[in-house]
Amino acid sequence: MAELRFDTRKIKAGYSPADNNQAISPPIYQTAAYDFRDTEHAQNLFTYKEAGYLYTRVGNPTVNYFTERVKALDGAKNGLAVGSGMAAITYTLLNLASKGGTILASPYLYGGTIDAFDRLFPELGIKIKLTDAVLDPEKLEKELTDDVKAVYVESISNPNAYLLDIDSISDAAHKHGVPVVVDNTLATPYLYRPFEHGADIVVYSATKALTGHGNLIAGLILDNGDMSLYTKERYPQFYEPIVMLKGKAPADIFADNFFIFRATLVYLNLLGAALSPQDAYLGIIGIETLSERVAKQSANAAKIAAYLESLPAVEWVRHPSLKSYKFRELAEKHLTNGGGGVLSFGIKGTPEQEAAFLNNIKLFHYHVNLGDARSLIVDSPNTTHSELNEEEFVLADIPKNLIRISAGLEDADDLIADLEQAFSAAGLL
């Protein structure tokens, strides 16, 4: 059979009814642990001579079906589902820099990520350097010293919808033996597939557009299966014996999967941010409508962006669909399925008028999630990115008047009418 296309994979990939009593929908394996057939089976599982399930914290069939489906959509070779997007980010970077070192990071990131970079990672001996050199590969190369363990970026950034040139970033990083980690949360594999642009690792907050209904918290770590970049000199942790492996190293056990294997064995196992089987099941169901949801969200966001750009009450608008978009050339080349559901704009008014505008919204939900079937609105500098200091606000290009919209699946004209009445109520029209 020929390779299945995207919309078939989102329904079929990673699951076989024949392995599950012919159940069409993947069962929820609601169990904490799994019986061993005998002592030999137990020993084989604990020494990784045989694949199987031990304990749901580190492996569960429903969670595995969820992981396999996303792997198929992204073109990943290996994957791990965890309890949240922040767990995915944290486990990935700890795995890469467990011996210390520097992570070069885009400043155009989710506020919670920057907060972790400011507060958590330095406590663990990992230096995070936010750098706008991700916009200039030649400048980036100069920052890729021997101490750098990864370059970390978002494909489409939150909240500004910046679109980075992952191809150029990857080319620069690989010249210096450094992997590129891409948070693909806003784009999803429907709009953008980072592995096709040179990325080595992809992370998701699956809470957002990937599953799309605002009813679960989940994260994913995926890799491209190429372990050659992780040299013993720069990444000794993959080649050092671990007690649980009876004197063997992760690279000794799984030569083509030691990145995910170590993340599972050390971080998921010992820190324990496990994804529940119920949430994995909700994720599987959500993915089945990924294309339809994100296509309409992109179209709604484009229509809203065009409306906002026409208003005297709006200072600026950022969305890949606009001719004024800073990365228009990249968007036309890479975002052929749409620009995504997230846009931001600058309201031209006083802080009191901004508050009145938000307080008079009727159809949009005022909260901090993204990618929901419902349309969402929030003042990012005061909420999702309130952790940033003044220097970080400037570096991230987040003005104090920024409003972020995550377009949902409602009628775009109804959403525009809601915005219009809120502008009027705030005295901005």
UniProtKB/TrEMBL annotation:
One of the record's GO molecular function terms: O-acetylhomoserine aminocarboxypropyltransferase activity
Superkingdom of origin: Bacteria
SUPFAM superfamilies: PLP-dependent transferases (SSF53383)
Catalytic activity: L-methionine + H2O = methanethiol + 2-oxobutanoate + NH4(+); L-homocysteine + H2O = 2-oxobutanoate + hydrogen sulfide + NH4(+) + H(+)
Cofactor: pyridoxal 5'-phosphate
CDD domains hit by this protein: CGS_like
Cellular-component GO terms for this entry: cytoplasm
Keyword Glycosyltransferase listed: no
EC annotation from Swiss-Prot or TrEMBL: 4.4.1.2
Protein keywords: Pyridoxal phosphate, Transferase
PANTHER family hit by this protein: HOMOCYSTEINE/CYSTEINE SYNTHASE, HOMOCYSTEINE_CYSTEINE SYNTHASE
Family stated for the protein in its record: Belongs to the trans-sulfuration enzymes family.
Protein name: homocysteine desulfhydrase
Organism: Ruminococcus albus 8
